[in-house]
Amino acid sequence: MIRKIMVPVRGDGKGDNVLAHAAVLAKRFDAHIEVTHCRARPDDLMPYGVAIPSFLKEQIFDSARKLAESEEAGLIDELKALAKKLGVKFSDNPKDKGVTVSWTEEQGKQPDVIKHHGRLADLICVPQPDRSQNIGVNTLKSALFLTGRPVMMCPPTDKVPAKLGDHVAIAWNGSLEASRAVILTTEILQKASKVTILSAGDGEPHGATAQDLVEYLDVRGITANIDKFERGSNIGEALLAHSATVGADILVMGAYGDSHERELMFGGNTQTIVDTAKMPVILVH
After folding, report:
1. Cβ neighbours of residue 56 under 8 Å, at least 6 residues apart?
2. How many whole angstroms separate alpha carbon 143 and alpha carbon 129?
3. How confident is the model over 208-229, as a mean pLDDT?
4. Confidence tier at 50 by pLDDT (50, 70, 90)
5. Does the first or last residue of the chain, that is N or C, have fewer Cβ atoms within 10 Å of its Cβ?
6. Which candidate, 28, 9, 254, places its Cα nearest to that of 145?
């Protein structure tokens, strides 16, 4: 059962949209949403390699603390107002009935905060990155590559869908990443009214077939249909287009990285979907 959804936020104005998406999905499970704010450490604001007198350092630390406290108070007020608008109860008790939301703040770097809180979340919701302004890229990568949890990327929209998880599409090619995506979203699939397996017309060279997946899901009480499509020149674009054609409201897929170093990069097809998706996508690495 999905019981804890994490929403990492920063003061970038994207938290409202992500929380709205999280609230819609949470209503299917009566889940608790933990909004986690990363508070910058005063040391991180110091110029690197520059000697600063102790009295000036204290002034900078004091200003940073006051600024952080002011930002935190403003974000909490915004969260409470949005929770009321969304019909979500503000509560620190995850066991309360219905959909609830709480606020948590931790000082540190964003990747470390996401790693700490995200590894014991059932789902992490993040904004779709805006690479042109370098906003949200590290948040998505940290959630994907440092937690091992499913991550729902929420695209910017003027109106969040009334339902999420009602019709779920699965991008299937038989790979390890695709199978992990299915395993870690089984509870979402079980709650869905319809599940569609999207499979490129050239087969599954990496392992289990789409029919194998149908049989696996059937054992778990999930009825799924296979929809084959031609991959064309860009499989990422084809997946998004076909997800929209079949009427899915969420796409579930494995996320691929080109490197296992600290600075991880997405594989080509994953990057296409990250950059251009117009619907929520649950990614699993």
Report:
1. none
2. 12
3. 96
4. low
5. N
6. 254
Q: Decide whether 4-154 matches 167-284 in CATH topology.
A: yes
3-state secondary structure of 126: strand
| Third-level CATH fold of 4-154 | Rossmann fold (3.40.50)
Rounded distance, CA 271 to CA 229, Å?
Answer: 20
Those residues whose C-beta lies under 8 Å from the C-beta of residue 57, and which sit 6 or more positions away, are: 46
Other beta carbons within 10 angstroms of residue 174's beta carbon come to 17
Q: In angstroms, rounded to a whole number, what is the distance separating the alpha carbons of residues 205 and 194?
A: 26
Domain residue spans in the chain?
4-154, 167-284
Q: Cβ(13)–Cβ(120) under 8 Å?
A: no
Torsion region of 179: left, alpha or beta (phi above 0 gives left; psi -120 to 50 gives alpha): alpha
Structure tokens given for 144: 């994907």
**Please, what's the largest Cα pairwise distance for the chain?**
69
According to the model, what pLDDT value does residue 265 have? Answer: 47
Residue with tokens 């540190």: 108
pLDDT digits (tens, 9 = 90+) for 27-48: 999 999 999 998 876 666 666 6
CB 195 within 8 A of CB 170: yes
The rounded mean pLDDT for the chain is 88
Q: Report whether pLDDT(264) > 50.
A: no
Domain spanning 167-284, CATH class: alpha beta
pLDDT of 100: 96
Residues 250, 258: Cα–Cα separation, whole Å: 25
Q: What is the CA angle 170-175-178, rounded to 5?
A: 30
Percent of the chain with pLDDT strictly greater than 90:
60
